[in-house]
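As a representative case, the lines below give one protein's residues and fold tokens.
***
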Amino acid sequence: MKDTDILTEIVHGGAGVLPQAGAVNVPIYLTSTFRQPSFEDPGNYGYSRGKNPTREAVELLIAKLEGGTYGFGFASGMAATQAALSLLKSGDKVLVSSNVYGGTYGLLAEILSSYGISFSLEDMTDLSVLEEKITDDVRAIFVETPSNPSLTVTDLKKVAEISERHRLLSIVDNTFMSPYLQRPLDFGIDIVVESATKYLSGHSDIIAGVLAVKDEKIASRIHMAQGLIGGILQPFDAFLLARGIRTLAVRQDRAVQNAEKIADFLQRQPFITAIHYPGLKSDPGYEIQRRQARNGGAMISFELAESIDIPVFLESLRLITFGASLGGVESLIGHPATTSHRGIPKTVRERTGISDRLIRLSAGIEYSDDIINDLKQAFEKADSVN
């Protein structure tokens, strides 16, 4: 989709799906059931778990923004991920990005494993060896790019080519980018999932998930899973999500501008031993990121030097919110090892580059100097050398 198309669709998409009253915003249909026109005619809507006009408007919008044909709204990003992985069956195996969200790891390790679905964490930055890991039981590849929390980058086109060659399902978690910055389906990926709680909503006020596909057969199976499992996006949350999407482009543009300035600041600090941001030319994933995304995004992670007392650093921040989540208008910071990735065994975290000194920062849309000054004063307070 061209910039002119996606920028307009972000602002106006969804509202015109239900034109009866000419509403500028998507109307909220707070109803569990609908009157059936007649015995022979069940009508467009019957029961809101299966289909609701407000959710439908958002699902059609998501499909357009992601470059798909079919879109789906869920109660959370995890519900969307579960729906995608529900296409697997007992005995199947999925290859997963080694730096993967802790919730995704937990879903695979604690829930799906009991159904006979196995997985292995693989380095998706080196796809030359990935095909060696494809055994007869492998049925899918699940990728985050940039990954959570180490911001490693995976070549989407190559993942799609490998998946097609081996007849595997390709799934990409696009939460860190959103369809405004990156569209995995354009590179041949089968399924894209996102936690819409993050950039799509952008205001830290709802929990939601979305999924988009191009293939009709896959869409049919996802639709069945959505209805039978029932983790649907509720009408009021769908309304808030549609409203949030209207400012997606301007929010992300500002957040990325801030992230670039913050990354430049961080790479010059003695308190930092490593910085992970694919918007930096020095980052290993920079060239791939430049080819497949609009820019490096607004997520940054960095390793703190041993001299920095991590609790003191995080608790000294005045503007940046120390807490879970990301992608809101406010800057958010977290310690993955004790929050988003705490459920992953320490040995696995260390093996996959998620150290206890790793910090994840979601740049908000505040004045950039205020964010940088907040980081600076917190570094100084937490530095045990001084």
Remarks:
- Residues 249-382 form a domain with the Aspartate Aminotransferase, domain 1 fold (CATH 3.90.1150.10).
- The chain has a mean pLDDT of 94.
- Residues 38 and 326 are 47 Å apart (CA to CA).
- The chain is about 35% helix and 15% strand.
